[in-house]
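thought: fold this chain, then report.
action: predict
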Amino acid sequence: MPQNTNAHLIAGIIARLDDPSFDRWASQIRGTGGCRQPIRLRGHVEHIDQATGGVLHRYTTRTELGGVLNVPCKTRRATRCPACAEIYRADTYQLVRAGLVGGKGVPASVITHPSLLVTLTAPSFGIVHNRGAKKTKTPRCRVRRAAPNCTHGVKMTCPAKHSVNDTRLGEPFCFDCYGYTEAVLFNALAPELWRRFTEALRRRVAKLSGLSNKELRQVLTISFAKVAEYQHRGVVHFHAVVRPDGTDGPASPPPAWATVALLTDAIHHAAGVVSVTVPAIDDLPERTLTWGKQLDIRPITLTGDLTDQAVAGYIAKYATKSAESTGTLDRRIQPLENLAALPISEHARRHIAECFRLATLDDLADLKLDRWAHMLGFRGHFSTKSRRYSTTLGALRAAREEHRRGEAITTGRLPLFPEDAVAVIGDWSYAGKGLSLAEQALTRAIVGGAL
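observation:
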């Protein structure tokens, strides 16, 4: 951090600490759970007795510090707001785990349903730096004694022992050889590839069980919960929980023939047969996109390394991450921005430039690659689930709000009255967002208990 910026930060912290309203400001920060980019609202709300028309309770932001109410941003991105992202991570953990052992409205009998953790990867788009395939203490990247040079004169070997935080991880040996077009299109079409995979999986299960697709729907439901993760090379792969149920979802057991072995066979088949074809466009030849050869399928067990807690924690961890780990930015990038001036890696820069180039082609306009260039083309949801897998994030948030309302009634901040007999009338307006760098530093101290 430059010296003048550091001095400005310290001056801002001192000014806030010396402000007579610091205690009230700190109370607002605690009320948002330590949100780094709170939304500021201005307005009021009234609770009206529908029978008498009398005002049972009134709240206005005029009594708040600065005349505004700070509410959490509720982002899932840990790079933007660790506090709100932690709530999202915890909710995702509960959602995934409830689909494995029950709870949150899911019967405990779901624990008897076989379940698998499946990882679907992207194919190779070129040789990239990695930590080696062998699980040794000092893995080497790629050692080839007689490795040839590529057509651009780059030698296809690297004896380096990359550390976990090495910025070269995921970068291609030769930027000009790497298939950026295919990589961007794969990211953009990965959600469609996933959809086709789930359909092919159901068809394969039906065939293996000797049933038609219609007959299968009458005895079996396959539920999913998945999350997308960016690999260092800038492409997404999916981690998914796959669970067979009866026709009533987690409340009914699957048929006895829906075993781990049958599901494993069906997943292998479905992952290998699905594809998405991008027709020839202008100077681009036809391309067929498939899943990569690396396919991991492991049963989820009650003991060992792959328990319900381990799987839920693993998936929830990636639900709060995005493409920032690949060297790109945590914000939307406009086509007219100077890419050379942005603080991003060369690998991410080439992905983004290719997104903008492909976005100019009319036949690819539906992919909206220019809007999702900062995500290297990926525009799907990071965490999704099938309808009957378990509870929903909305239900978890509603339960949390109900708990807070009960707490407010208990402490006297909100009167007790029957909700169906009360009309709630509010008027709110947006008044800004975010904290200064000094306020963010103080927020970390407040949440951490230092203040």
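thought: worth noting. The chain has a mean pLDDT of 90.
final: tokens above.
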